[in-house]
Design a protein that fits this description.
Layout (H helix, E strand, L loop, with lengths): L1 H32 L4 H29 L5 H33 L7 H23 L2 H31 L4 H35 L6
């Protein structure tokens, strides 16, 4: 029971990761390209992420309690990571919804720094999924370390935006929307970091092997 049940949980956890990744992609296109039609898709994916969280929490706990052969360390890493992925999906929704303000009143500044942050988040999510699929602790550790880059990029973005708002006080509404976007992206990075760190800890010291 343990191998098949754990494998199925791992597959659905990877699916949850892919949904969050898709949310980030669609939200970034809504933000950077004015694709407001993507907002509804981001929300729909968020409902799927929420449903997977509920289902996987129950399944993880059931397998741990019923099967002594199950890899409880891996299952607890997944269990604890579910809320992180759910929150990352919520923040992707926030980014998508902010695009409604910014497409009506586009800010008088470039999105260069936001593009860098979004690109790093996409890389983190892809590497986290690959680390689990390929059972690669090094890849998980690299993904974890990328959150430092996101923090640095966010700090630079924040400083530049505050400077811009001092010089252009009429753009306060757009500026506040961009501040919310920047903070949401930073929080996505924090939550993905938690997930990749748990995978690295599970794979590294224990050398676990999972047939994902």
């Amino acid at each position: 029971m343990s191998d098949s049940a754990t494998h199925a949980i791992a597959v659905d956890f990877l699916r949850m990761l892919s949904f969050v990744h898709e949310q980030v992609v669609l939200a970034s296109e809504a933000l950077l390209e004015g694709r407001i039609d993507h907002v509804a898709q981001v929300r729909a994916l968020d409902r799927q992420v929420d449903a997977l969280q509920d289902a996987l929490e129950d399944r993880c706990l059931r397998v741990i309690s019923e099967d002594p052969r199950a890899d409880a360390t891996f299952l607890m890493a997944v269990f604890r990571s579910l809320s992180d992925l759910e929150r990352a999906g919520d923040y992707a929704v926030h980014v998508a919804e902010a695009s409604r303000v910014l497409v009506v009143n586009p800010p008088m500044r470039r999105y260069t720094d936001l593009r860098r942050i979004i690109s790093t988040i996409k890389t983190m999510l892809a590497m986290t999924a690959r680390a689990l699929t390929e059972r690669d602790a090094d890849t998980a550790s690299i993904a974890t370390a990328l959150d430092l880059d996101i923090d640095e990029q966010h700090d630079q973005f924040y400083r530049e935006l505050v400077t811009y708002l001092h010089e252009h006080p009429h753009a306060v509404n757009e500026g506040l929307a961009l501040l919310r976007v920047g903070r949401s992206l930073q929080r996505i990075g924090d939550h993905v970091e938690n997930v990749s760190e748990r995978i690295a800890n599970w794979l590294g010291p224990r050398g676990r092997q999972l047939g994902v």
